Amino acid sequence: MIRATRLLRAGHLNGGEIVDRVVLDHGDRHRRRTAMRGVGGIAFLLDLPDAAVLNDGDALVLENGRLVWVEAAPERLLEIRAPSEHALRRLIWHIGNRHIPAEIGPDAVWIAHDHVLAEMVRGLGGTAEPVDRPFRPEGGAYAGGHGHSHSHD
């Protein structure tokens, strides 16, 4: 089975030939090693040196140099809005206090659909409307090799 051993970030695809694409939800976009099949039928083994978050628009480099495009699948989410910037910041704090993945935009926040959190948001004066769209949550303070390392040797 052909392997994909490298990840090219969106914007750094440098003209490679895209031969297929994989459509993955948020949970399936954090990988290191797994068998995959593109929507066009190409089967390959994702075999990265380290676990990585595969972002919408990235590409996986196959051993033969060809590329498989990564696309974020639409998911059922809650779009959370508030009547003011301060109210939205309060809602973000309450959501973050529950340690759940969240995508933060300039005037809305998206989280996985959860009726309990929807009621909490509404109880705090916000709106929580179901939407279907790709989910691109924040990576967290330690994502992507930035920030504090947990190695204290």
From TrEMBL:
Q: Sorted alphabetically, which CDD domains does this protein's record hold?
A: UreE
Domain UreE urease accessory N-terminal residue range list = 3-68
Q: Which InterPro entries match?
A: UreE, UreE_C_dom, UreE_N, UreE_N_sf
Q: Where in the cell is it found?
A: Cytoplasm
Gene3D superfamilies recorded for this chain?
Urease metallochaperone UreE, N-terminal domain, UreE, C-terminal domain
* Region feature Disordered, mapped onto this chain: 128-153
Pfam families reported in the protein's UniProt record = UreE_C, UreE_N
**Keywords in UniProt for this one?**
Chaperone, Cytoplasm, Nickel
Protein's job: Involved in urease metallocenter assembly. Binds nickel. Probably functions as a nickel donor during metallocenter assembly.
Q: Which family does it belong to?
A: Belongs to the UreE family.
Q: What is this protein called?
A: Urease accessory protein UreE
Which gene underlies this protein? ureE
